[in-house]
Amino acid sequence: MAQTISVRGLRKQYGDVQAVDGVSFEVDQGEFFGILGPNGAGKTTTLEIIEGLREADGGEVTVLGQPPWPRNKKLLPRIGVQLQASSFFERLTAREQLQTFSSLYGVSGRRIDAMLETVGLTDKADTRVEQLSGGQAQRLSIACALVHDPELVFLDEPSAALDPQARRNLWDVLRDINTGGRTIVLTTHYMDEAEILCDRVAIMDRGTILKMGPPAKLVRELDAAVRISLPSGALTEDEARALPAAEAAADDGVSLTVTTHDASPVISALAERRALEGLQVHGATLEDVFLELTGREYRA
After folding, report:
1. Rounded Cα distance, 276 and 256, in Å
2. Distance between CA 63 and CA 26 in Å, rounded?
3. What is the pLDDT of residues 203-229, one digit of tens each?
4. Mean of the per-residue pLDDT values for the chain?
5. Which end of the chain is less congested by CB atoms within 10 angstroms, N or C?
6. Mainly resides where (predicted)?
């Protein structure tokens, strides 16, 4: 498969801080690629270098077969960028906002209407941008990044500060965009977002990539325990610990939780005891992988 992005040994330093320290990865054509990491991991700096907004101190970057720096005007019509903090022109409606962006690329009016429909803002076309909700404004920001029909789209934390309903709506939009053949590079703090949307993810911290691969593969490699929960009182803790393959059991007065690396014997034993009512199985997630690699301490 053709490579849309190639990054080799990328470095960027600000004073004494090594923001990006030897990062290397590739993104294939049509791939939905995620860059994950805590605050200060180097995600946004990496993205801005690839987009051609910052000059790297070292390493090589090619985007669609061309270097993005010095600022490559040939790439601009082929990429779309939605920045972490988006600003709109004041007092313009959603349609007027898109018209302003599209005029920079010579895009027709039909394309503007199509983009409003794509991001679900047709009924808000004549609403001023300051009157849009947070989710609607984010969708408009993505429409502005897509109005010239780019091959490659960069999205820097597009669902930040959105409520759960708005986030889910945005995910549907992004899936449709990717299904249409565009390559998408996403940075996000939300592990569930990356797990649902991304074909592959790179987990960054302190300027380096700690691990990279499909979310499901990274979760499997973690080899984390499975938690099987039952309503409290279904079994005693001692009975739960005696179940085949059970490693630990705890009852907090609401749920009895059995921990194991092999759920099948535990569930079979519970079935024999007719104790399956209310049973829930909780496996590892990408968030567990993230915390295992980056640590659990809070970072402001």
Report:
1. 12
2. 10
3. 999 999 999 999 999 999 998 889 999
4. 91
5. C
6. membrane
> Cβ neighbours of residue 71 under 8 Å, at least 6 residues apart?
52
Which helix (H) or strand (E) covers residue 48, if one does?
A: helix 43-51
For position 166, what pLDDT does the model report? 80
Distance in angstroms (rounded) separating the CA atoms of residues 3 and 6 = 7
Helix (H) / strand (E) containing 137:
helix 134-146
Q: Which CATH number fits domain 3-214: 2.40.50.140, 1.10.340.30, 3.40.50.720, 3.40.50.300?
A: 3.40.50.300
Instruction: Please say if the pLDDT value at position 162 is more than 80.
Output: no
CA dihedral 170, 176, 178, 179 (to 10 degrees): 160
* pLDDT bracket for residue 296 (50, 70, 90): low
Q: What is the mean pLDDT of the segment spanning 272-277?
A: 92
φ/ψ region of 57 (left if φ > 0, alpha if ψ in -120 to 50, else beta) reads alpha
What's the CATH architecture for 225-283? 2-Layer Sandwich (3.30)
Return all residues near 113 (Cβ < 8 A) that are at least 6 apart.
122, 125
What contacts 21, CB < 8 A, 6 or more positions away?
Answer: 11, 42, 206, 207, 208
Residue closest to 229 by CA, chosen among 244, 209, 249, 213 = 249
Structure token digits, residue 66: 């061309």
Distances (CA, A) of 284 to 119, 206, 246: 33, 24, 17
Give the pLDDT score at 124.
94
